[in-house]
Amino acid sequence: MQRTQFGAMACSIARTLDVIGEPWSPLILRDVYAGTHRFEQLQRGLGISRKVLTERLNWLVEQGVLAQREYSARPVRHEYLLTDKGRELCDLLLVMVRWGDRWTAGDAGPPVLYRHHACGKISHVELRCSECEQPMRATDIDLLPGPGAHPPS
Amino acid sequence: MQRTQFGAMACSIARTLDVIGEPWSPLILRDVYAGTHRFEQLQRGLGISRKVLTERLNWLVEQGVLAQREYSARPVRHEYLLTDKGRELCDLLLVMVRWGDRWTAGDAGPPVLYRHHACGKISHVELRCSECEQPMRATDIDLLPGPGAHPPS
DNA sequence: CAGAGTCAGTTCCTTGAAGGAACCATCTTG
DNA sequence: CAAGATGGTTCCTTCAAGGAACTGACTCTG
Questions:
Q1: Dist CA B43 CA B55 (whole Å)
Q2: Would you call A116 and B134 a contact, using CB atoms and an 8 Å cutoff?
Q3: Contacts of residue B119, Cβ cutoff 8 Å, sequence gap at least 6
Q4: Across the interface, do A111 and B1 touch by the CB < 8 Å criterion?
């Protein structure tokens, strides 16, 4: 990955990027979310180099985003599953999908549609305030220093 | 950046990554959003190499995420501002912040707090369904092929 | 029971992007 | 007129991504 490590910055964006900011990581997450759990399937589906896939999977397991489950002993074989931490990361994917659908899909329209279980309709995500439930966009907020604002040293 | 180009994939996640998936791009977007508009300020604040900053800014302008505005002729000097397309990308940053605050902030607490204009409260973003307004998580949906599902060739 | 196939890696080499420092060009200020 | 500010550009080094071949442990088929 990049040489500059983002993990140590006092910024939740940088720290999130440290976990899934490397190329391929969000796409691996997407495929695991969509039901692809095994090394060979992931490699073929993505067209990613086996070396990089190994590195990414190990990193994501180390970070607690994915978990390995043994589905065969002799030979030992693991599949990769989302943890709670990883499942919440998928929210990020939904927002990326929304932006990509709006701004990059063009005339062809969105490549994938999303049907919400609760209402059964084809829909997309919207961002709302956790307090008042009104829409909350980046332009609707003020930034204030929080308790973790000071760098560790 | 990575050698494999994501932009051509029939996937809105990959296409979004093609625009801001490279290292530094989301942090540049964050700083421009937070009010840092000039080259020198961005470079110092991020600690990014000047070469890479030049490349990223040009790419983001080319993609229509940032716009250049001349604030001085003789010598020609531009500042970088968000477009509508870029402003909507900042929604992604809010979701990254939310995840980073929950899973990486640790005991120190979140480094930045967000006050929603509409209600004045410190809050965070939640994902809701655009149709029924109920919470919408990655686990609450089915995926269906959309009109743009077929690769261009 | 030999040979092919599956699966999950590992190793090796090449290429190209990131880091970092120095340099440049154009103005402004003291 | 020398410094400083500003926004780049150039150059070199280092390290990560791509890609192909190889390994090792099994299983399946004739």
A1: 12
A2: yes
A3: A129, A131, A132, A134
A4: no
Taking only the tens place, the pLDDT of each residue in A53-63 is: 999 999 999 99
- Report chain A residues whose CB lies below 8 A from the CB of B126: 127-130, 133
Model's pTM, two decimal places?
A: 0.93
Q: Are A134 and A128 in contact (CB under 8 A)?
A: yes
**The pLDDT of residue A1:** 43
Strand D atom within 7 Å of A51 CB: yes
- In chain B, residues 104-143 whose CB comes closer than 8 Å to chain A: 104-106, 108-119, 121-143
Would you say A95 and A125 are in contact if contact means Cβ atoms under 8 Å apart?
yes
Record: contact A92-B94, CB cut-off 8 A: no
